[in-house]
C-alpha cells in the first residue's frame, strides 16, 4: 500500500479531532509558522490514526521552543499548564483532553535505566530516540507541510505487517521499561514481536533490574489499563519477564479467568489497580508478596489489599457451610479491605463461596441499625464499650432478619438492657 498523501492524512486528521482541538492546533501552527519552527503531532496518536483507532491524547513536538508555545497556548485558551524545564516539555490540561508539548530533541542515556540527558534536534532525530518504529512517526501540522507523514524508520510498513520492532539493539538496555511496552503493544494490537527484537528482549530482560520501583510500577499500571491486561501479563510470564521483577512471580493459566472475572465485576470501569495487583500476587507466599510490594513501591493500601486477600484466601473454606448465618459471613469478611474481598471473588470458582462473597459485597456490608449511639444512651445503655456491643447486636439481628422494623430494634435493646446492660 502507498504512503497516504498529505491531502489524505490532513483530511483524516481533521475528521478525527474535535473542533476545539483543531482550533487549538491551528493557533499552535500559526505561532510556530511565525517563528519558522516546524510543528508536528508525534508518537501514539499518529500510530492510532494510521490504524484507524483514534481517541489517543495528542503529543505535539516543536522544532524550536516548546515551552514558549505551551505558555502562549495556555495564555490564549486558559488551559492549566505544567512545565518541565529540564526535559523541555509541558502539559496543557483542557476540560475534554490534554495536550503534551515537547521540544524536538535528541537524548543520550548516561547509563542503563537512567533518565536521559537532552538537547534540541530536528524531528527526524527526535523520532530516532523513540522505542519502536510504529511509535516513531510524526505528522506535520504547520505551514505548507500540513499533513505530511515523517516516517524515517518505516513505521508505517511495520504497522501494516503487524510488527513491534525496536530501533536499535541497545534499546532495551537504554530503557528496559520498553520490554513491558513491547509485550503491551504486541498484545493490544495482536501484532508479532519482530524476530531480532524478540531475541534482544530475551537477551536483555535482566536489565529490568536497572528500573526504579516507581517506573516499574507504572508499567504494571499501564498493563492494567489495557482492555485485557491478562494477555500482556500472560505473555510477560511466558517470556520470563515477570520473573525478572521477582523470581517467584509468574502468570498461571487460571489467572486469565481471574482478570476476566474482575473486569466483569467492575464494569463499566476497569478493575482498580489494587485488585489487579491482588490477582497478580494471589499465588505468592506472603513474604514474596511483600517483596513485590517493595520492588514496585506499591502504596500502603495496595499492600493491605494484597495481604488481606492472601489471609482471606486461606479462610475461604469457612464460607462453604450452608448453615452459615448472614451475621457470621459479615464477621468473617468485614475486617478485610473491601478490595481484597473483590479480589477473592474474582478468583473463586466454588458456587457456595461465590454466593456468600457476592451477598456480602451487594447487601450485608451495607446493613446498618436504625438506632444510633445517642438513641442507645437515651435508652439507658451505659457509655463506653456497651454502646458498641449493643449496636453490633442490633446489626447482627438485622443481618439475620431478626430485627426488621425500628420497633424490633427497640424491643431488642429493652431485652438486652433487662438482661445485662
Ligand atoms: N516513548 C519511548 N520510550 C518509552 C516511552 C515512550 O520512546 N519508554 C515514546 C514513544 O514514541 C511513544 C511516546 O514516547 O509513542 C509517548 O509515550 P506514551 O504516551 O507512553 O505512549 P503512546 O505511544 O502514547 O502509547 P499508549 O497508547 O500506550 O499510551
Rg computed from alpha carbons, rounded to a whole number of angstroms: 28 Å
**Average pLDDT reading:** 94
The best one-word shape is elongated
Distance between the termini: 85 Å
Helix segment tally: 22
CATH structural architecture of one domain: 2-Layer Sandwich
Low-confidence stretches: none
For the largest sheet, list the strands in their spatial order: 3-4-5-2-1-8-9
Which topology of one domain does CATH recognise? Beta Polymerase, domain 2
Structural class by sheet pairing and helices: alpha+beta
Q: What CATH first level of one domain would be assigned? A: Alpha Beta
Helix content: 40-55%
Query: How would a textbook summarize the main sheet?
Result: 7 strands, mixed
Give the distinct bound molecules.
Answer: cytidine-5'-triphosphate
Q: How are the SSEs ordered, and which strands pair?
A:
Layout: H1 6-16, H2 19-34, E1 39-42, H3 44-50, E2 58-62, H4 66-77, E3 80-84, E4 89-93, E5 98-103, E6 105-108, E7 117-120, H5 123-128, E8 138-140, E9 149-150, H6 155-161, E10 163-164, H7 171-174, H8 177-189, E11 192-193, H9 195-204, H10 213-224, H11 229-238, H12 242-245, H13 253-266, H14 273-281, H15 286-295, H16 300-315, H17 326-333, H18 338-347, H19 351-362, H20 373-379, H21 385-399, H22 406-419
Helix pairs in contact: 2-4, 8-10, 8-11, 11-13, 13-14, 13-18, 14-16, 14-18, 15-16, 16-18, 17-21, 18-19, 21-22
Bound molecules: cytidine-5'-triphosphate.
Cytidine-5'-triphosphate binds at residues 43-44, 56, 59, 130-131, 135, 175, 177-178, 181.
Amino acid at each position: 500500500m502507498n504512503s497516504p498523501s498529505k491531502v489524505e492524512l490532513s483530511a483524516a486528521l481533521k475528521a478525527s479531532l474535535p473542533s476545539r482541538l483543531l482550533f487549538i492546533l491551528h493557533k499552535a501552527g500559526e505561532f510556530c509558522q511565525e517563528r519558522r519552527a516546524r510543528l508536528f503531532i508525534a508518537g501514539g496518536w499518529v500510530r492510532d490514526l494510521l490504524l484507524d483507532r483514534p481517541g489517543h491524547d495528542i503529543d505535539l513536538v516543536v522544532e524550536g521552543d516548546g515551552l514558549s508555545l505551551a505558555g502562549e497556548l495556555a495564555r490564549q485558551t486558559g488551559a492549566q499548564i505544567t512545565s518541565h524545564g529540564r526535559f523541555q516539555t509541558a502539559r496543557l490540561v483542557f476540560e475534554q483532553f490534554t495536550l503534551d508539548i515537547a521540544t524536538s530533541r535528541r537524548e543520550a542515556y548516561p547509563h542503563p535505566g537512567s533518565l536521559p540527558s537532552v538537547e534540541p534536534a530536528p524531528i527526524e532525530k527526535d523520532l530516532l530516540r523513540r522505542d519502536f518504529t510504529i511509535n516513531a512517526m510524526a505528522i506535520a501540522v504547520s505551514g505548507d507541510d500540513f499533513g505530511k507523514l515523517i516516517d524515517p524508520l518505516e513505521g508505517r510498513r511495520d504497522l501494516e505487517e503487524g510488527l513491534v520492532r525496536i530501533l536499535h539493539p541497545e534499546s532495551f538496555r537504554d530503557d528496559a521499561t520498553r520490554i513491558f511496552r513491547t509485550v503491551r503493544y504486541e498484545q493490544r494490537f495482536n501484532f508479532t514481536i519482530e524476530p531480532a527484537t524478540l531475541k534482544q528482549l530475551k537477551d536483555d530482560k535482566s536489565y529490568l533490574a536497572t528500573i526504579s520501583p516507581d517506573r516499574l510500577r507504572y508499567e504494571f499500571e499501564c498493563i492494567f489499563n489495557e482492555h485485557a491486561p491478562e494477555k500482556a501479563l500472560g505473555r510477560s510470564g511466558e517470556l520470563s519477564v515477570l520473573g525478572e521483577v521477582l523470581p517467584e512471580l509468574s502468570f498461571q493459566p487460571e489467572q486469565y479467568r481471574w482478570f476476566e472475572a474482575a473486569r466483569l465485576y467492575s464494569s463499566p470501569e476497569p478493575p482498580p489497580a489494587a485488585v489487579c495487583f491482588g490477582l497478580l500476587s494471589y499465588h505468592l507466599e506472603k513474604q514474596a508478596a511483600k517483596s513485590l510490594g517493595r520492588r514496585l513501591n506499591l502504596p500502603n493500601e495496595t499492600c493491605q489489599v494484597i495481604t488481606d486477600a492472601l489471609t482471606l484466601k486461606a479462610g475461604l473454606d469457612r464460607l462453604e457451610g450452608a448453615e452459615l448465618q448472614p451475621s457470621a459471613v459479615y464477621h468473617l469478611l468485614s475486617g478485610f479491605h473491601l478490595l481484597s474481598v473483590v479480589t477473592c471473588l474474582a478468583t473463586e470458582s466454588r458456587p457456595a463461596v461465590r454466593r456468600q462473597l457476592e451477598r456480602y459485597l451487594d447487601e450485608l456490608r451495607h446493613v446498618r441499625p436504625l438506632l444510633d449511639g445517642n438513641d442507645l444512651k437515651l435508652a439507658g445503655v451505659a457509655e463506653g464499650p456497651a454502646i458498641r456491643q449493643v449496636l453490633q447486636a442490633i446489626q447482627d439481628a438485622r443481618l439475620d432478619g431478626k430485627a426488621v422494623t425500628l420497633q424490633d430494634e427497640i424491643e431488642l435493646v429493652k431485652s438486652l438492657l433487662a438482661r445485662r446492660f
